[in-house]
Amino acid sequence: PPPAGGHAAADHHARLRSAAARSDLPGALAAFAAMSSSASASPVLRTFTSLLKLCAARADLATGRAVHAQLAARGLSAESLAATALANMYAKCRRPGDARRVFDRMPVRDRVAWNALVAGYARNGLAGAAMEMVVRMQEEDGERPDSVTLVSVLPACADAQALRACREVHGFAVRAGFDELVNVSTAILDVYCKCGAVEVARAVFDRMPGKNSVSWNAMIKGYAENGDATEALALFKRMVGEGVDVTDVSVLAALHACGELGYLDEGRRVHELLMRIGLESNVSVMNALITMYSKCKRTDLAAQVFDEVRYKTRISWNAMILGCTQNGRSEDAVRLFSRMQLKNVKPDSFTLVSVIPALADISDPLQARWIHGYSIRMHLDQDVYVLTALIDMYAKCGRVSIARSLFKSARERHVITWNAMIHGYGSHGFGKVAVELFEEMKSSGRVPNETTFLSVLSACSHAGLVDEGRKYFSSMNEDYGLEPGMEHYGTMVDLLGRAGKLDEAWSFIQKMPVDPGISVYGAMLGACKLHKNVELAEESAQRIFELGPDEGVYHVLLANIYANASMWKDVARVRTAMEKKGLQKTPGWSIVQLKNEIHTFYSGSTNHQQAKDIYARLAKLIEEIKAVGYVPDTDSIHDVEDDVKAQLLNTHSEKLAIAYGLIRTSPGTTIQIKKNLRVCNDCHNATKLISLVTGREIIMRDIQRFHHFKDGKCSCGDYW
C-alpha cells in the first residue's frame, strides 16, 4: 500500500486545485498552509503558479507578494513557469514595473513570458511599451508572435491611436494566417474602429469566414462610436435577422443609434427585444433606454423606464435629469435632483452639468446662488465643465458680472469656458466686451472652435458691429480652417439685416456654398419686417414655405409685414394658408418667479388669482408713463379701432408680469421677467418708462437676448 504521507500530499493538492477552480483564494491559502506544515506534502511549482493565478484574478497584490517571497526562498522565482506567473500577477495588480523586473531576471524567456509582459503593458495603458515588446521579442529572442501576442498588442495600438502599427499587425496576421482566427480578426476590426478607420474595419468584417457575436458587437459599436448611427442600426437589424445571439453590447449600441437618429419606433422595437432576451435587469441597458427615449423627445417613456429600474445608479439619475433638461422640462429636472439627494445618491460633476442648465432656463438668481454654493460644498466648483455651466447659468439669470467673476477665478479655461463668457456678453448686448474677450482668447493661445465664432458673430449682431462681424466670418475659414454651418450663415444674415443692409444680406444668401435653410431665410424675413421691405420679405417667405416649416411664426411675420404696408388681401391670403396647413400663432407668455413660485402670464390672461389687482396696477402704470411721454405703438396690431389697439397692447404678457412684480416686491427690488417671444416695440418703450417712474431695474430675457431697463434706458440702446 502507498505510504500515509502520499495520501496526505494528494489530498492537500486536490483541495488546492478545487479551491483554485472555484476562485476561492482563502481556501487555496488554507490548503497551501496545511501543505507547507506537512512533513510529507511540500508545495511544488504548480502549487505556487495556481496561487499566483488566483491573486492575479482578484488583484490581490499583498498575497501575490507573499507567494513571490515563498518562491524566492525556495530558489524557484527565476523558473520560467513561476516567473511568467509572477509577471502576469504583477501586471494584473497594476504594477507593470514589478512585472518588468521579474521578466528581466529570467535567464530564459519563451513566447508565453513575452506575451504576459505585452498583455500587462497593454492592460495598464502603456501602449508604447507593449508595442516595443513585440518588436524586441523578435529581435532579441527570435520569438515569432502568435495569435495571443496579436490579440494582446492590438488594444495597445487602439489606445495609442496607432493606425500604422495596426496596419502592420494586420499585415503580419494575414501573412501568418492568423486572420482566419475569429478572435484575431475581431481584435483587428475593433482597433480600426477605435482609430477611426471604420470602412477598413468593415472590409475586415465582411471578409471574415466565421463571425461570432463579439465580432458583430465590435462592428456595430464601431459604427456607433464613429458617428454612423444609420449603419450601426442597419447592421444590428441584420444581426438579429441572421439569428446571431444579441448581447448587452449590441443592444447598447443600437439604443445609442436610435437616440442619435431620433428613431422612436426602432427604439421601441429594440426595447421589446431586450425584454425578450432578459436584459431588463441590466442597469446599463436600462440607462441607455432612458437616454434613447429622452433623445426621441419622449421623456414620459423615459420616466416609465426610470421608475421601473429597481436599483438605480447615479448614472440612472443623471440620464433622467439630463433628459428632462434637454427637453425643456426644467422644473422636473430640478425636482429629480432633489429626489436624488433625498435618496442619498451622491451627485457627481455630470449630475451638476445636467441640472445647472435647467436652473439657467428657469432663470431664478436665488436658485442659481444655491446650486453654486452646493457645487462649492461638493468640491466640484473648479471642475471645468461645472464651472462653465455656472458661468452660462449666471449669464442666463441676468447676472453677467457674477459670471465674469467666476470666469476670472477659473484655474483652467477650456474653449467651452471662453465660449460661455463670450456668449453671455453677447446675449446681454455687450458686443464690444465680447469682441475684446474673443481677442484675449486668441492672444492666450486658445484656439476658437465653431461655437466660439457663432457666439462672437451673435454678439456682433446684437450690438450692430457689422465690420467686426464680416472680419470674423472670413477669419473662421481663412485663419482656422473651420467651415461655417447653417447657424453661422443665419447669424451673418441677421447681422447685416438688423443693420439695414438688406441687399448685401440677400446677396450673401445667394452666394452661399450650401442650400440656405429655414433659419437663414427666417433671419432675412425678420430684417424685412424691421425695415419694411415687402419685396424681399415675399422672396424670403416663399423659400421658407417651400422648406415646410413646422411652426406658424413665419406666416405670422409675413402677415404682419403685409399689414404694416396695408396690403389686406395678402394678409387674408397668408392667414387662410395658415389655417389650411393647421399652423397656429405661438401664444406669447412671460414668467416672473417670486419666492420659489413661478407665475406665468399670457397676453390678455385674466385667470390669475390677483388679476383684479394686476389690471388696476397696470392701468395706473399706463397713466404714469403717459405723463412722461408714453405713446402706444400700435403698428403691430391691425383690423381694430385705435382705442382697442391700445387696450390690446396693455394686456401683453410682459406688462402683466411687470405689474405683478411691482405689487409683490418691495420698492427698489429688481424685477426679472422671462419671455418666450421677441419683445415688441411698444412693450420695450413702455418698460423703459416704467423703470423711470418706479425707480426699479427691470431685467427682461426674451427669446433672443437680455434687456436691462434702468432710469428710462435699455442696455440694448434700442437696437434689438
Describe the fold and architecture:
This is DYW domain-containing protein. Pfam families: DYW_deaminase, E_motif, PPR, PPR_2. It comes from Aegilops tauschii subsp. strangulata (Goatgrass). PPR repeats lie at residues 110-145, 212-246, 313-347, 383-413, 414-448. It is built from 38 helices and 6 strands. The chain is mainly alpha-helical. The chain has a 6-stranded mixed sheet with strand order 2-1-3-4-5-6, covered by helices on one side. Helix 10 packs antiparallel against helix 11, helix 12 packs antiparallel against helix 13 (213-225) and helix 31 packs antiparallel against helix 32. The longest helix has 18 residues, at 4-21. The N and C termini lie far apart (105 Å). Among the domains are: 511-585; 589-714, no CATH class. The model is unreliable at 1-6 and 638-645 (pLDDT under 50).
Keywords:
single chain; 720 residues; mainly alpha; 6-stranded mixed beta sheet; 6 strands; disordered N terminus; repeat; RNA binding
Spell out the blueprint of helices and strands:
Blueprint lengths: L3 H18 L3 H13 L7 H14 L2 H13 L6 H13 L3 H9 L6 H13 L3 H14 L6 H13 L3 H14 L5 H13 L3 H10 L5 H13 L3 H13 L6 H14 L2 H13 L6 H13 L3 H10 L5 H13 L3 H13 L6 H14 L2 H13 L6 H13 L3 H10 L5 H13 L3 H13 L6 H14 L2 H13 L7 H13 L3 H9 L7 H14 L2 H13 L6 H12 L3 H14 L7 E6 L2 E6 L8 H16 L15 H8 L3 H12 L6 E5 L5 H14 L3 E4 L4 E5 L2 E2 L6
Parallel strand pairs: 3-4
Antiparallel strand pairs: 1-2, 1-3, 4-5, 5-6
